[in-house]
Design a protein that fits this description.
By secondary structure, the protein is of the alpha+beta class. It is built from 21 helices and nine strands.
């Protein structure tokens, strides 16, 4: 007679455990603030079930609550988080870095494939470890740029795109793969000092590995439920193996590129990291993770910016022509010089406006409160609360940018380069423009990214005219990095008169 009772109690325990597990995921935990809205759990799942555009999702589900409350509770990356967007709150977050330390994937979801990939590095580390990484890497990221490397690669990119265009005379070309290869060639050669010939050799093994890894890393199911990586799933085991191979191969390539002894005072970032490892300042693990994050941040963000900038100018042929004329106003020898290009007001405003409206990292959820914090006397965040920010929303605050904050209007940056740079600094310091984060942990690659982007755009503008391929279904990516999805352009070589 005891058996049915045992079975019933086992069944009850199992059901109770499942219900508890599901409610823990579906409902926000009790320590999250009650005086801000909670975005329904299903918001996170939308990208799993239908083709969505993250801009449209934002306008439908997030814009109104974020504009009204400045922060919401939201499920993301396997956890409930507080997403903070109001600039006054964000200014507090960026200023008080010690209250809002980073909590990267290796802290949030330590057993996930994503954590294995990104690990502890200069972007995710905190405290003394971060200081040490930054001291090693900053001089390499901010040293003078050899623009001839970027210009050469940009000319190869333009030629390859035109070859694709000629092959597809009837329609436009998909540009993502070649722009990615271009960005990889730039970062590997210019920052890491060992060239990955991704542009000339589309079968380059590191490029191929990267293409295999990306869909596995950004698989929406695993991004939202990293807990699945706890279990033995053959495809995830394969993903882990690929990630390990990629890190080892990348490190071997950088070592090969620097066969001479590297010194700590080198201006090359790859060399500086190798020297720090040789002198015992960096473990093999930290060497690999910092090389990897340089590779990832150094090619993905620039790639996304190029795609978004080509998109906005394809959509506005008149503006494209105006910027082209401005670049042509420089003597030919200066058209690939970052310093000369930085004196052009329209090019500068177009780039800043693209970065404002389409921040490549539109939403980042990688902080955790170290102590109880009150945001502007309004919202209580208990110690240990995961938080994040959404640059797409913050950068469009109508109180700062005006009622047309959702409109692409480069003229808002003023008439001169001095106006544009002053507004860039003011908006960044007030956390009204957080594309590059801000505060103590501001992007260390910003200078390199802007200089190389100016050269890229100048070479596009002086070599090609482009417009949107009318067959391209105008759409932004569904989640993750924000960019036009699988952008297709129709390209035309410039004639002499142009
Ligand atoms: C358009 C280009 C870029 C954008 C929009 C961008 C944006 C950002 C953002 C938002 C962060 C903060 C990330 C966080 O909250 O965890 C960041 C940090 C960082 N970025 Fe960039 N980035 C760009 C290009 C680059 C490039 C080319 C590099 C070169 C490797 C780079 C290196 C870094 C580093 C090292 C940090 C960490 C700074 C620190 O915490 O001390 N970035 N970037």
């Amino acid at each position: 007679m005891a058996f049915p009772w045992v079975a019933a109690s086992l069944l009850f325990s199992a059901v109770w455990a499942i219900v508890r597990f599901v409610t823990r995921i579906v409902l926000p935990p009790s320590h999250l603030p009650k005086n801000i809205p909670t975005i329904p759990f299903y918001y996170t799942l939308l990208a799993l079930f239908k083709e969505v555009d993250q801009e449209q999702l934002y306008h439908k589900y997030l814009k109104q609550p974020l504009e009204q409350w400045g922060a919401v509770n939201i499920f993301f990356g396997g956890h409930w988080n507080v997403l903070i967007t109001r600039p006054t709150y964000m200014a507090q977050v960026l200023k008080n870095d010690e209250d809002f330390p980073k909590a990267g994937n290796h802290v949030k979801n330590p057993d996930s494939v994503l954590a294995l990939y990104t690990g502890e590095n200069v972007i995710s580390a905190i405290g003394e470890t971060w200081k040490q990484f930054a001291a090693i890497m900053k001089p390499g990221l901010q040293s003078a740029i050899d623009a001839s490397v970027i210009a050469r690669n940009a000319h190869i990119l333009v030629d390859l795109l035109m070859q694709d265009q000629k092959r597809n005379a009837a329609s436009g070309v998909a540009i993502l793969d070649l722009v990615q290869a271009y960005a990889i060639s730039n970062v590997s050669e210019s920052l890491l000092g060992a060239r990955i010939d991704a542009l000339e050799n589309r079968k380059n093994p590191l490029l191929q590995l990267q293409k295999e890894i990306k869909p596995k890393i950004f698989n929406p199911i695993h991004l939202n439920f990293p807990i699945l990586d706890w279990f033995y799933i053959p495809s995830r085991e394969k993903a882990k193996q690929l990630v390990k191979t990629f890190k080892t191969e990348l490190t071997a390539l950088i070592r090969q590129g620097h066969r001479h002894e590297c010194q700590l005072d080198s201006t090359n970032l790859g060399c500086r990291l190798l020297a720090a490892h040789n002198t015992g300042q960096l473990s093999e693990y930290h060497l690999q993770q910092n090389l990897l994050i340089t590779f990832v941040a150094g090619h993905e963000n620039p790639m996304i910016l190029i795609l978004s900038n080509l998109f906005v100018l394809a959509d506005r042929p008149y503006l494209q022509e105006q910027v082209r004329r401005e670049v042509h106003s420089l003597p030919p020898s200066e058209r690939t010089q970052p310093d000369a290009l930085a004196t052009l007001p329209l090019l500068t405003s177009v780039i800043f406006e693209t970065l404002r409206m389409y921040p490549p990292l539109s939403q980042i959820m990688n902080k955790r409160t170290a102590t109880d914090v009150i945001l502007s006397d309004d919202i209580i965040l208990r110690a240990g609360t995961f938080t994040g920010y959404n640059g797409y929303s913050t950068n469009r605050n109508p109180e700062f940018w005006g009622p047309d904050a959702d409109k692409f209007r480069p003229s808002r940056w003023g008439e001169t380069v001095e106006d544009a740079n002053a507004l860039f600094r003011r908006a960044t310091s007030k956390a009204e423009f957080i594309t590059f984060h801000g505060g103590k942990r501001t992007c260390l690659g910003q200078k390199w990214a802007l200089a190389t982007h100016r050269v890229t755009m100048a070479i596009f503008l002086t070599s090609l005219k482009w417009r949107l391929d009318p067959t391209w279904p105008r759409m932004m990516t569904p989640a993750g990095p924000l960019m036009p999805k699988n952008l297709r352009l129709e390209l035309e070589t410039l004639s002499i008169e142009d």
